[in-house]
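Exercise: predict the fold of this chain.
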Amino acid sequence: GGKALTFGGRGWVVLPPGARISSDPVAFGVRAQDDLAISLYVETDSGPTTAHPIGLRSAWLAPGNQVLAETLAGATSFRSYLWLEGVDVRAAPRAGAIVAFGDSITDGFSTTPDADTPWPSILARRLGAQRGPARSVINMGISGNRVLREGAGSSGLARFDRDVLSRPAARWVLLLLGINDIGFSAIPGLPASEKATAEDIIAGHQMLISRARLHGLSIIGATLMPFEGVNTYTPAGEEMRQQVNQWIRSSGQFDAVVDFDAATRDPARPTRLHP
């Protein structure tokens, strides 16, 4: 059976623009890798919503208040997360979360809907199969996201506090961000203020490293994957990618490095992904 959510003891809440609201805790047994169905009733036209267009899980819109219905009447399916941002689960005292902080590669772009195959999901299953304290993975990827500039969601620098530091039990952040700063710089007619250099991206990484350390989080750097064949690829962009990756691997600034580039490049043509 379902459980009703309350907010400060009440069965309703007003969500102001830009605010984040948590429900009261609810006693509800849930195991690792369980799927939860969460129903929200919006009383009046909300106006524009936040959205997650790459949403890889099916969702449904239905008329009227059907939050208690086992089967929705007159439902329309779609794939975008509206309003609901996440679920916090109380786990063992030694449990900890890894925040996967990135762009479309982390978000799960081009993976099969409802198959749960973005790399953070695969990592979560691998960690769940190991012995020892529970390790969850929180997917904070936004397709098109950049380190330095607004656009597809707030920039990495702007959203780090909200999406990483505010997460209960976050212990590590894995940073895979920067390829859109490089690629978007090649868009014709883009204002100079929107472009980035390798030095800019490195400086952005250093600022995120400082923010993580200030709050006691370990930060794992991830190298930027090959992008030849994408319509924003240029030789100058490839040179920037190599410079950023060289710094990620050799600077010693991160607590650890995951070499996504080495894992995914084509040995015969390392500027492209391995087929």
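Check your answer against the key: The first strand starts at residue 59 and ends at 61.
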